[in-house]
Amino acid sequence: MKTLAGTGGLIRLILRRDRIILPIWIVVLCAIPMSYVKQYGDLFPTAQSRLDYANNAGFITLYGELSGTSLGEFVTWRLGFVPVMVGLISLLTVIRHTRVEEETGRSELLGSSVVGRHAGLAAALLSTFGANLVLAVLLALGMHSQDLPWSGSVAIGAEFATTGWFFAAVGAVAAQLSANAGTSRGIAISVLGAAYVLRAVGDTSAHTDGPLACLSWLSPIAWAQRIHPYGENRWWLAVVMLAATAVLVAVAINLAVRRDVGAGLLPARLGPAEGSLGSPLGLAWRLHRGLLAAWTVGFALLGLLFGGVAEGVGDILRDEPKAKEMFERLGGSAGLIDSFFAGVMTILGLIASAYAVQATLRLRAEETSGRAEPVLATATGRVRWAGSHLLFGVLGPALALFASGLTAGLAYGLAVDDVGKQIPRLIGASLGQLPAVWLLAAIALAIFGLFPRISPAAWAGPGICILIGFTNAGVQLADWTNDISPFTHLPRLPGGSLSATPLIVLLAITVVVGCIGLAGWRRRDVPIG
Amino acid sequence: MPAAISTEGLVKTFGRTRALDGLDLTVRTGEVHGFLGPNGAGKTTTIRILLGMTRASSGTARLLDSDPWSDATDLHKRLAYVPGDVTLWPNLSGGEAIDLLGRMRGGLDKKRKADLLERFDLDPRKKARTYSKGNRQKVALVAALASDVELLLLDEPTSGLDPLMEEVFREVVQEVTDRDGRTVLLSSHILSEVEALCDRVTIIRAGRAVESGTLSELRHLTRTSIRAELAGAMNGLAQLDGIHDLRVEDGLVRFDVDTDEINPVLRRLTEIGVRSLVSQPPSLEELFLRLYEPEAAK
């Protein structure tokens, strides 16, 4: 096995490089399921309440059909999205340690030492497989510690791990196809997305006895899900997943033999010889448009989803005082559906603030990569350059929130036959989050302008707000803690009373903080490494 | 005509490090000025101050008769800059990047761009992520050299270029200076490039100019190597000023002599009687090695 020489050393290198991120995702993906057991056991104590909760089109699209009413099955069903996350992280990890290494030329450096042709691929796959195995073992132990039966706990571990393995192998194949890591990621994520959509369409169709039910059986995500932990524990589906993984690994190895180091199987595409870009804004549009489209589509889907489940949620909230209390703390108490939507809008606002910070920190990425310098050496002033990126940090989240309000209004409006009124109400409610979102973008700008070296600290803004928001939904926090988050000061929309004062105060703070950031940026040295 | 670039007592500190320590630099309008010095001497910091990216801690800098910090945007219409390590937007093609930088500077000469693309043998359709270091460098060079500007600030612009492309670079720089009368500040480590292109050079070390002048002026600063077979004893030779490393090998006398002191030394040699004599002029390499060495600043 000369082609595998050096695999052990490369695995050690991967574990060394990922020594922080790897434990984090394993622990988080283990902790989420464990925390759900108690939480959902308390919220939905009876078999009937669980059936009522799960039996609506929105949740079936999102998580699939509930396989049985035992607590283990209910929690596993509700966790339906976590295996997708496991798959996503696994494929990204494999691509990061294969194609990215090749693209940056680092693997060439290693390849010239005693490292076999397949060692890089093998090391990336084995590390990812190993991480998923550790996750499975910890998850089985953890779920059992929550008083769930052993067999089901091992089965849910198998569901997660085989999903991770399968998509790690998808990542390995995608990494061979294109010489560009971004394209490879796109291919692999599309496969994951397609598997999810097939399952969603198939399950939704099955729920209504439609003709497309068979589509689910084309989706590896559905295969793993239908292991049905804590119910039938169909181990043979885990074996199917392993076999499919083995096939994909064989394909990846075969493709790897057919290509040169650094090359892909798909030809690199050429761009235009003459550019039409001629302004900082044009450049910013080019750099931000992919991100903008992805966030807007994602928010539109979230809106559709929340709008779709709203009516059903209303029924549950009526019967489940604890769940109702949770949503009221998140979003206010102005009628059941309205408090649900107000809670949803807070969640969307919190997520949108992450986008606002991401778009704003693009400034820093351009500076540290050295791409800002040639632009600033042209007749482009500093404020104009920063403004071209900030436009996307300000209007991007606005567009994404608008899209979610629109689709939520459409979905809920269709369900209650009141589209004309629901769409403007929910668009208004979603845009109502913007003052808090913009404030976090302004803080990111201020950090970039005044303390560029600690720019990543800007992520603490959305991080702290999300932590406060979600913790407060579960247990009532002290007022002063809540008051830290700008989202606490927003009117509870829809349904709550709209008072202009907090909005004006938030906007005024945003403008002041933003101007301080721009002033700092104008005065400081560029680039600060 | 005022100088294109002049700095006086320029100081820049980053925390406790003094990147520039009283730099005086004058670049006359229309000349190609070589800017040399070891790594970390402060060349890039100087260029960033001239670009208004970095603010000097003290001292004055004038660029095209304006203040490089407060008039940065207007000045940038009149100059083009090529960094030593060009990074581009991976998903833009080379052609798009060239046109973008050109337009933001105020326009490109299309004919000139096409000509440069051909001479530098650069395919503008390729995405920047697929370019090698040399090709990324060419993108920045084409964007700068095709611009209609008065001043070019080039910071090690040929790093990563192959010798053929370096030759093209020399031709093009000669064209833009001879024909269009542009001023060039060229930071470089490639001595043959400096010798071929530069009218005058400034050598900086530890943030301070240690020498400045034409290359022939600088040559006077260095030593000539002499190897001679003498007819008599070398009495008194060691006592003469400007003689270094005097030694006798196989009946031959070898020594180095300061170029300014060469006349008295030669007179003394002919008094003793010379059978044969080989004299080697100072090479540029030796000159720079000596000036780059830490003692040279003293």
TrEMBL record, chain A:
Keyword Transmembrane helix: yes
Coiled coil spans: none
Transmembrane segments: 20-37, 75-98, 119-142, 154-174, 186-202, 235-257, 291-310, 330-357, 390-414, 426-451, 458-478, 498-521
Keywords on record: Membrane, Transmembrane, Transmembrane helix
Protein name: ABC transporter permease
Species name: Kribbella capetownensis
Automatic annotation (TrEMBL), chain B:
Entry-linked InterPro entries: AAA+_ATPase, ABC_transporter-like_ATP-bd, ABC_transporter-like_CS, ABC_transporter_ATP-binding, DrrA1/2-like_C, P-loop_NTPase
Pfam families per UniProt: ABC_tran, DrrA1-3_C
Record has Transport as a keyword: yes
GO biological process: response to antibiotic
Alphabetically ordered keywords of this record: Antibiotic resistance, ATP-binding, Nucleotide-binding, Transport
Gene Ontology cellular-component terms listed: plasma membrane
GO MF term (any one): ATP hydrolysis activity
SUPFAM superfamilies per record: P-loop containing nucleoside triphosphate hydrolases
Membrane topology: Peripheral membrane protein
Record protein name field: ABC transporter ATP-binding protein
Organism: Kribbella capetownensis
